[in-house]
C-alpha cells in the first residue's frame, strides 16, 4: 500500500501514481507537461444526460460504495488501477481525502461511478465507469455539483482527451497548472 502521506504529498506536487496492470506489484509516479483540467464554470453535459438527471433515472449517492466504484473502474482488459492502488485509495477515503460518486439503478445495483482525491480546494479526478446508459456522465454531473457546492477551485483530470473535452476539459501548461494547484491548496473545500 502507498501510505496516505506519500499519496497526498505527491498530489500536492502535481504527481500521481499509475500501475502497469491490475496485478502489478508497485505503481509508478507520473506527471505531464500538459495538464487536463475542467474549469468549474465551463463544465457541460449533453441534453440527453440532463434529461436522464431531470427524470431521476438513477439514484446518486456520495461515498456509499467507494471500493466498489474503484473495482468498477478497474474492471477492464487494460487498467492502471492495481490492487495496491485500490487499497491505497480506500485508505484515503477512510481519511476523507478520496471520494466517489455512486450511481445506482432503482433495483439497488451500482451501475456507474467516478472517484478522485480532494486536497485543499483541488479535486483530482481519477477514473469513472458505467454499466448502464450514461451512468458515468451522470456521475460526472454530480461530481461537478459537489465541487461547486463544496467550494473547490481546481478540477484536475491529469490528461486532456476528446472524451473529457465534451465536458469542458481544456489543456494547460504544467507551469500554469502548478500555479493553480498552489492557489487551490491554500484553501479549504468540502466534497458534498
Estimate the global geometry from the Cα principal axes: globular
What ranges have pLDDT less than 50 throughout 5 or more consecutive residues?
A: none
Number of structurally distinct domains: 1
Strand content: 25-35%
Q: In words, what does this structure look like?
A:
- The structure is a single chain.
- The mean pLDDT is 95.
- The longest helix is centred in the C-terminal third of the chain and has 16 residues.
- The strands form two sheets. A seven-stranded mixed sheet has the order 4-5-6-7-8-3-9, with helices on both faces. A two-stranded antiparallel ribbon has the order 1-2.
- Helices cover 37% and strands 26% of the residues.
- The chain is built from seven helices and nine strands, in the order H-E-E-E-H-E-H-H-E-E-E-H-E-H-E-H.
- The radius of gyration is 16 Å and the shape is globular.
- It has 192 residues and is of the alpha+beta class.
- It has one domain: 3-Layer(aba) Sandwich (Aminopeptidase).
- A hairpin with a 5-residue loop joins strand 5 and strand 6.
Question: Mind sketching the topology for me?
Answer:
Blueprint: H1 4-13, E1 16-18, E2 28-30, E3 34-37, H2 47-54, E4 59-62, H3 66-74, H4 83-94, E5 98-104, E6 110-119, E7 122-130, H5 135-150, E8 154-158, H6 162-165, E9 170-173, H7 174-185
Parallel strand pairs: 7-8
Antiparallel strand pairs: 1-2, 3-8, 3-9, 4-5, 5-6, 6-7
Helix pairs in contact: 3-4
Amino acid at each position: 500500500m502507498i501510505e496516505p502521506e506519500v499519496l497526498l504529498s505527491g498530489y500536492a506536487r502535481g504527481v500521481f501514481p499509475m500501475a502497469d496492470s491490475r496485478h502489478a506489484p508497485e505503481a509508478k509516479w507520473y506527471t505531464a507537461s500538459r495538464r487536463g483540467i475542467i474549469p468549474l464554470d465551463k463544465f457541460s453535459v449533453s441534453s440527453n444526460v440532463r434529461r436522464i438527471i431531470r427524470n431521476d433515472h438513477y439514484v446518486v449517492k456520495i461515498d456509499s460504495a467507494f471500493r466498489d466504484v474503484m473495482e468498477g473502474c478497474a474492471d477492464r482488459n487494460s487498467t492502471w488501477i492495481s490492487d495496491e492502488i485500490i487499497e491505497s485509495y480506500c485508505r484515503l477515503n477512510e481519511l476523507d481525502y478520496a471520494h466517489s460518486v455512486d450511481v445506482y439503478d432503482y433495483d439497488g445495483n451500482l451501475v456507474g461511478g467516478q472517484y478522485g482525491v480532494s486536497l485543499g480546494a483541488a479535486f483530482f479526478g481519477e477514473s469513472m465507469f458505467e454499466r448502464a446508459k450514461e451512468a458515468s456522465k451522470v456521475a460526472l454531473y454530480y461530481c461537478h455539483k459537489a465541487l461547486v457546492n463544496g467550494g473547490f477551485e481546481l478540477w484536475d483530470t491529469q490528461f486532456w482527451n476528446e472524451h473529457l473535452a465534451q465536458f469542458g476539459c481544456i489543456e494547460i501548461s504544467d507551469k500554469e497548472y502548478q500555479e493553480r494547484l498552489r492557489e487551490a491548496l491554500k484553501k479549504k473545500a468540502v466534497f458534498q
